[in-house]
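Fold it.
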Amino acid sequence: MSAGHSHGHAMPKKLAFYTIPLSLLVLAIKLFAWRVTGSVALLSDALESIVNVVASVGAFIAIVYAAKPADHDHQFGHHKAEYISAVIEGVAIVVAALLIFREAIVELFHPTMPKDIFIGLAVNVVASLINGVWAYTLIKAGRAARSPALVGDGQHIRTDVITSIGVVIGLGIALATGYPIFDPLLALLVAAHILYAGWQLIAESVGGLMDTALTGDEEEAIRKAIFDNADGSTGVHDLKTRRAGSAAFIDFHLVVRRDMPVGEAHDICDRLEGAIKKAIPGSTLAIHVEPEGVKPHGVRVRID
């Protein structure tokens, strides 16, 4: 594994590791808030945080595994492990939502006014601030490093923040109106939002497992790199791309003169590879050189 590749995975690995003790801290804070108040909404919030802890451990394991270099059994690397982790994160979010639904529905038929609400709210706000800052950090860093597992972990924690905001609103309304039913009602609304967020994360992660192509902007950057650095060739066709976590795989056919020496064609390939890797960091290329006159299988890009 190259130094650059190792460095690219060091930051996501470190953040994923720190997420585990942080999730345990937030869980402890929320469990304390629930014990003090007896609020079903705060219990729902704590239940989601339990899922957060499990999911954070899973994300860390996936990021460590994805950083492993290619081997005989996984010759294109282990990058897709992050997508598997992100799918698990999405499932965990859905499970958390279902747990909240169950607790809220039970409380809906027998609502009770929570006790010591102000203490519970204050403690929950502290936990939410911690989660909010960390979720923003994970999502921003995960997108920069193209780490689906880190982004998924951040999105999971962000749903926890949204849950906490809903809990605070619900308890505040219950306290202001004297109607305890607002506590489980807000828990139900929060659960619905969490369920939707989990479904979205699963859909995005499954897309990665299905070899989704690079974005339009990335493919345009590839075409520009080819156009600017393919002097000596006569065209390119069959450009194909796919994304696997932080890695990008790119292949295309490079058309050259029939009488071009192999060494000269190789030099063109080296130049193209360097330019494309600069435009798309973390990319792996496969360039098929073919002589003029072969009928292209895809859209051809003229270089001259």
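The longest helix spans residues 3-37.
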